[in-house]
Amino acid sequence: MKAHLLLLVLTVWLNVQFGGCALSSSCSHPPSKWCSSLDSAVQCGVLKQCLESNFTRSHQTADQVEVGLYYESLCPGCRGFLTQMLLPTWVLLNDIMSVTLVPYGNAQEKPDGEKYIYECQHGELECLGNMIETCIMNMTDDAYLIIYCMESSADVIKAGESCVNLYSPDLSWDSVMKCVKGDVGNQLMHQNALKTKALNPPHQYVPWVTINGVHTEDLQNKAMNSLFTLVCSMYKGTKPAACGGGQRHYRSYCHNE
Ligand SMILES: *[C@@H]1O[C@H](CO)[C@@H](O)[C@H](O)[C@H]1NC(C)=O
Ligand SMILES: *[C@@H]1O[C@H](CO)[C@@H](O)[C@H](O)[C@H]1NC(C)=O
């Protein structure tokens, strides 16, 4: 038996014996680094999850299911879908799915010299939120967690700085704002506009979901009801353990303080 598999069996056994709780108070790594070494996985209390994830990855053969989300930073339906459906699903199924977030939605752009001026459905603050999230995606691997943190906060924009500090301590807020106010952000937002305008069929509302680049009413409804079930069912390779059989509840991580 491979050492990897043996470790997996051992951890599963330990988890069964000791209730699956792990100490997490000594975790000093940002989430994208949790699985980068055995030590950090242990410190952050996610060893079992990392081993499972590495195991699935090494056995992965089929193409990942591509989930696209066209949204606006302050639209309530978008925030609900992003925080309650997309992120929890991605945490469990990131080995078999890839996510593309395009914050733009029903915004409008007008050329202004070399740059573009943007108008957003929910006002200037929404344009700012879209831009912050776009810049963050361009600057760190931890973008999804930061965006989740912002979108699940009472004030999406105000939460930005503390969410960045929490999930990507190496990324300075000043550099994010430099992107937001500068040419890079402006160009990146133009790319979002082009991607949104290229949708076929054109989007009629937000959040607008594509699966492997395709939008149908059926896929949209299934994604809204249970993205988790949809991704598991669309994945053509061997289903990861997380997909399980039938009903499944989101795994909860426990913390011993
Ligand atoms: C997961 O895989 C990576 C790359 O193969 C490896 O460096 C890391 O140590 C593994 N993590 C765990 C917890 O086994
Ligand atoms: C960030 O944006 C720049 C400028 O558009 C681009 O060249 C670069 O590839 C982007 N990087 C990432 C990680 O998206």
UniProtKB/TrEMBL annotation:
Quaternary assembly: Dimer; disulfide-linked.
Domain Saposin A-type, chain residue ranges per copy: 20-60
PROSITE patterns attached to this UniProt entry: PROKAR_LIPOPROTEIN, SAP_A
Species for this entry: Sander lucioperca
Record-stated family: Belongs to the GILT family.
InterPro entries (alphabetical): Interferon-induced_GILT, SAP_A
Name the record gives this protein: Gamma-interferon-inducible lysosomal thiol reductase
Function: Lysosomal thiol reductase that can reduce protein disulfide bonds. Facilitates the complete unfolding of proteins destined for lysosomal degradation. Plays an important role in antigen processing.
PANTHER family tied to this protein: GAMMA-INTERFERON INDUCIBLE LYSOSOMAL THIOL REDUCTASE GILT, GAMMA-INTERFERON-INDUCIBLE LYSOSOMAL THIOL REDUCTASE
